[in-house]
Each structure stands twice: as C-alpha cells, then as structure tokens.
Amino acid sequence: MDVSIDSGKKKIIPFIQSGDYFFRRGVIAFRKNHLSRAVKLLERAVKLTEQEPVFHIQLAAVLSELGHYERSNDILESVVQNLDPGHSECHFFMANNYAYLGLFEKAEHCAIAYLSDQPDGEFAKDAHDLLDLLRFEKEEEGDEWENELTPTDQFLLEHEKACQLLEEGHLQEAIVLLEKLMDEEPSYWTAYNQYAQALFRLGNVEKAFEVCEHILEEDQGNLFALCNMALFYKKQGQQQQAESLIQALSAVHPMDRAHRFKVAQVLCAVGAYEQAYDRLKELEWTSISSDPEWHFCIGVAAYHLGQEEIALRYWKKAATLGVQQAADYYAMSIVDILQKEDVTYEGWHVKQKSRQNS
C-alpha cells in the first residue's frame, strides 16, 4: 500500500493490482521457467482483464509448455471465436498442440488456416516445417488425409510444396507449380513473388522484372516485390535503379516481424550492412532469432562492420543449425584465410544440399 500525508494526517491509499501487473509478473516467471507460478499469475491477469487477447494467448503458451495441450487449445479457440479473430497466430499454436496430442489431421488444418491468413507471417516458416513433419507422419501411417481436404487446404499444401522446391533449388519444378497456383488464385501475390525469384535465379531476368512490375501495378507498395526488385537490380549491377529502391526500403519499418526480417535480409544482400545489422538486432529477442538464416545473415552484416568476433559467434550458431556456408566462413576465418569480398549474403534461403541446382 501507499501512504501519503494529507493535512497532517496519514492517508492510506490501497495499491490496486491490475491485469497488466499480473501479466508482467507472469511473463517474468515464464522466462525464468517458473511455469506453475506463471500460470497462476496469468490466470489472475485474465480474470482481471478478460477482454485482452494477449493475456489469454500467453496463458495458453505456458499451459502448452506444461503439457496441458487440450486446455491451451480451448483458450486459443476462445480467443479467435470470442475475442479477436485477427490473432491468426492462435491457429499456429493450436496446430503445435494438436501435433503433440497426435491429432495430426487437426494439426494440419490449423497450420493451413494460419498460412491462409498469414502466408508471409512471423510463424510461416515454422508452419511449413510443421506441415513437412506432418506429411512424414502421414506417410508413416499410410493415411490419406487429402481426401478430406477442402480446395483451400489443397491449394495451400501445394504452395507449401512449391516453397520446399524453391528452397531445395528445384527451380523449374517450383515454377510449374507456382504457375498453377497463380492461375487458380490470380491475386495470391506471395506465389507471384516466389515465381519472380525462381525466374531470376534461372536467368530469366526480363520476365522476373515483368512479374514484379505486374504485382506492383495490382498491389501498389507490395513489400516483397520491392525487395525482389532491389535485389535483382543490385545483382544485375544496375546501381542507380537499385539505390532508389534501397532508400525506399530503408524508410520502411514493418510491424510484422517476418516482413521486418525480409527487409533486413535484403539490406544485407545489397550491402547496407549497418542498417541490416541494426534491424536484425531488433529481432534478437523474438521468435525470428530461432531461424538459422537470422544467425547467418547477422553474422555477415557484423563481419562487414568489422565485428569479426561477433560474426564468428553468430556463424558458429548458424553452423550448428545446419547452415553450411556459415560453417565454411567460420572455418576460413579461424585459419585467417577469409577475405571480405568472399563474405556475401544471397538474400534468399537455399538449403545447402541443393545449392548446386540453384
């Protein structure tokens, strides 16, 4: 309680603990891995501030960590049904919970629902990885889930397959599938941007630019199209055209973390290392920093800023997460044969085993 003096008399002012107060304490307990205490604090926060979706979602996250997957999903379902359907991340969290419960079909539907709403969202890569795992489980069990999929589900599964082909460097196969998706959904700009990238990487530069220009005509200011064009111009040595787009991207600070990461990656790829490093550092305490590409990219930016020890730390971590190029840079730096001109960042993710095909 708080005690103040009023006209010579002591006045007792009660300390009113709000939902925000218990939420902050709950998050601190969660970060310290005091999970049971975190649940109690977050339950109190939810009780005091019932209409705040973030409080419910954080409680669901802690319950999931404790293995209470059913209750976690009940809360998440309630958020999207009763509080705020805009919290698409709930579908991704529910997908993870269902996967832990062994309810793979439900997990797949939730992952697809998330990707349908947020194809470039913060958890998009994780959702694709989960779908890969579920596909493996499906093959192991011999189930034919596709028979029960809606046309939207099937569309998103095909897009997920296209993303996988693109990452593995099977560019011609990716192009065929992306063209099919673009025919089915002419305003699905994520597929168009990936199509442009595949075309460029195959050397069809003129058509890649045409696709980007078409996107921008139909969806003015499309961030990923602008990123692609900046990268394409830079790689083609068209510095003047690249610079105007780089300046435009430098002024963009997206709210979505996945979009922020994309801009930082492109800035690193075009040589704006200081800006890239600062933006990547801003994402250090978010889920983005679990991405191996984040570690590799920030390592490249740090190296070009003269912070070799920091770069080595990030590359070492990226190497343990499977980024072969990071392992190569780390090894070359240790024996003092790494040259600055050798350290580059492509701007798109390619799985190491398939680089020879890209």
From TrEMBL:
UniProt cross-references to Pfam families, sorted A to Z: TPR_19
Keyword DNA repair assigned: no
Gene3D superfamilies per record: Tetratricopeptide repeat domain
SMART domains, per the entry: TPR
Superkingdom to which the source organism belongs: Bacteria
Alphabetic keyword roster: Repeat, TPR repeat
UniProt-listed PROSITE patterns: TPR
Signal peptide start and end residues: none
TPR repeats: 19-52
PANTHER family reported for this sequence: LIPOPOLYSACCHARIDE ASSEMBLY PROTEIN B, TPR REPEAT-CONTAINING PROTEIN PA4667
Name of protein: BH3572 protein
Lineage, opening ranks: Bacteria, Bacillati, Bacillota, Bacilli, Bacillales
